[in-house]
Design goal:
By secondary structure, this protein is mostly beta strands. The chain has one domain: Acetoacetate decarboxylase-like, CATH 2.40.400. The chain has helices spanning 51-54, 61-64, 117-127, 204-207, and strands at residues 27-40, 67-69, 71-79, 87-93, 96-99, 104-107, 111-114, 131-133, 135-140, 149-155, 165-171, 180-183, 193-195, 216-235, 248-262. It comes from Helicocarpus griseus UAMH5409.
């Protein structure tokens, strides 16, 4: 009589195995569509951190650097070609923070959602970007327009019928027709991201919320032909995402190229 095998059937994940694929930087020339706006920073509003990060040193200014403000920004991105397949994203940068022991201040992403667990896992592991999972619904435009979408709705997986972001997109009569070259390389200041270590969910093998042990430095490069569009609606609810009054004129890049690389400290 043969001994029973302790090896799981082929194709069955072993207990303790990492279900995600490590996809390290760089992520280069990702074909994307980008919606973005910037404004004068006015502090760190409610909803700027997910609960996991809010209860960790990541959100503790004494541990991870004092908030200095300057400029805040929101970006919504549709990635069509990436090392972890297509996904959507929304992020919030409340402003600049001190980088401890470096004597510099840099922008920091404090709240970000993506539509894929592979992106959640790798964004956290590679760059300390505090990604969480959300549902994205882009509504196609029924008009001949420079913008392919009439709007977007973003919701939590637990409450798919209660979007915390509901935005409408529309062209601006004069400004949306002409396009202009855009590149982050035109920005005359260092926009590199420095991010403190992330906390880890006890269920990270299910939700992708992996933790890290040290600071990471990264750089995002965006280029393409941009247009000015009008955006209105609800941008956040003060819980799942900051309740921001950033409607008005945004920049839209229809055929953007985005690269995200790790920078050695």
């Amino acid at each position: 009589m043969s001994e029973p095998s302790s090896k799981p059937p082929e194709g069955t994940p072993q207990s303790g195995a990492n279900p995600f694929t490590d996809t390290p930087a760089p992520w280069m020339n990702m074909k994307s569509q980008v919606f973005s706006t910037v404004a004068r920073a006015k502090g760190i509003p409610e909803g700027s951190y997910a609960e996991l990060e809010a209860q960790s040193p990541f959100a503790d200014q004494d541990a991870s650097g004092q908030y200095r403000g300057l400029v805040c920004s929101v970006m919504i991105v549709r990635y069509f070609e990436t090392p972890v397949d297509p996904y959507d994203e929304i992020l919030f940068v409340p402003g600049h923070f001190d980088v401890p022991d470096k004597g510099i201040k840099r922008p920091r992403v404090t709240r970000i959602y993506v539509s894929s667990k592979e992106s959640v896992y790798n964004g956290r592991k590679n760059w300390n970007i505090p990604k969480h999972l959300a549902n994205f619904k882009f509504i196609p435009s029924d008009k001949s327009s420079a913008i392919p979408y009439a709007g977007v709705e973003i919701s939590l997986p637990s409450t798919p019928d209660q979007p915390f972001v509901t935005l409408d997109f529309s062209p601006v009569t004069i400004l949306s027709k002409p396009s202009f070259p855009f590149s982050t390389s035109y920005v005359p200041i260092d926009m590199g991201l420095w991010a403190p270590a992330l906390p880890e969910s006890k269920d990270w093998k299910e939700n992708g919320l992996v933790g890290t042990q040290e600071w990471r430095q990264a750089r995002a490069d965006i280029s393409g032909w941009a247009r000015v569009i009008r955006v209105k609606g609800k941008l956040g609810d003060g819980q799942a995402f900051p309740d921001l009054k950033l409607g008005g004129l945004w920049v839209y890049i229809n055929d953007a190229r985005v690269s995200f690389v790790t920078v050695e400290a």
